[in-house]
Design goal:
Layout (H helix, E strand, L loop, with lengths): L6 E4 L4 H6 L1 H11 L3 E4 L7 H11 L2 E6 L2 H6 L1 H11 L3 E4 L13 H17 L3 E5 L7 E2 L2 E2 H8 L6 E3 L2 H6 L4 H7 L6 E4 L1 E3 L21 H4 L3 E3 L8 H11 L3 E4 L10 H15 L1
Parallel strand pairs: 1-2, 1-12, 2-3, 3-4, 4-5, 5-8, 9-12
Antiparallel strand pairs: 6-7, 10-11
Helix pairs in contact: 2-3, 3-5, 9-11
Length: 276
Amino acid sequence: MDKKLPIAIQLYSIRDEMEKDFKGTLKKVKEMGYDGVEFAGLFGNSPSDVKAMLDEIGIVAISAHVALNEILADIPKVISDYKAIGCRYIAIPWLAEERRPGRPLYSQTVEDFKAIGEEAKKQGMTLLYHNHDFEFEKVDGEYILDILYRDIPADLLQTQLDTCWVNVGGENPANYVRKYSGRAPVVHLKDFVMPGKKPARLYDLIGTDNEPQDESDTEKFELRPLGYGVQDVPAIVKAAVEAGTQWFVIEQDNPSMGKTPMECMKMGIDYLKSIL
């Protein structure tokens, strides 16, 4: 690989450890070899305290996942808080069903995304959208994800393609990263196995719902440490470099293979570094 991109960890992957020992876990992440972090909550720490921790440890804050409603509650403050930490990007990680293309609140979604994107731009940051696989449902013959990126200008919204969910959604991850060349600054690398058909209640398996899991489904779909599933990671990495990606983010929502979350994230970065 001619160009080695820096590697960050999505801290949601180790959320329990972050809650118990915020600074100590950041130190361990640095020791694992990660260059940067993507936040999923600050666990009660102030932006200035977080910035001081990062500077002391020597690790970069590249972005943060922040719920849409949380951003909308005070757009300038939320963006300025994450800017103060050092983040270059702020990512919306989920879109409620009623806000999606073809649904009643979609026009409001477009206006809200534009308002957030404008404020981010004003403050020198960039708004991203992080997909799951529901965005690969079609409305009038077009993927929800493509409609979203079509309706909101690239200068106000960039992609954060989660390559696991692209694959689960039925598309080739490397090809999809290339599709958004020049608009894919941060790419999520995530691995999985899915021996059977896609579970009907997939998100129960990753903790977005408190309902009991269907054991037959958990046998069909499992998130895995990067390099230990079905993803063609070298092809995705090559495509990302060609597409102008600036950062890779490794994520694993839940641990597997009998490993702890920290062990999974160490396996993932060790694998990625071995192929870069």
